[in-house]
Amino acid sequence: MKSPILFLHSEDDHLVPIQIAQQMYEVAVSAQNAERVKLVSFDGALGYLHNGLYRDAHLPDIIKKFVLSL
């Protein structure tokens, strides 16, 4: 895998536990340049669960920062 990867994950995701996202991140980092792989986790207290990350006011800035870092 050579593509940049941005993992976005809520700590209270009830379908995919945060540990799975962390494992996928670690695999991706080991397979390519670590600077092209990022994991951003969102505090479970925000209540985003599995599909609510779009509600985070900082999401556009997180994505922009990742894209500009490539």
From TrEMBL:
SUPFAM superfamilies: alpha/beta-Hydrolases. Gene3D superfamilies: alpha/beta hydrolase (3.40.50.1820). This is Monoacylglycerol lipase ABHD12-like protein. The lineage of its organism: Eukaryota, Metazoa, Chordata, Craniata, Vertebrata.
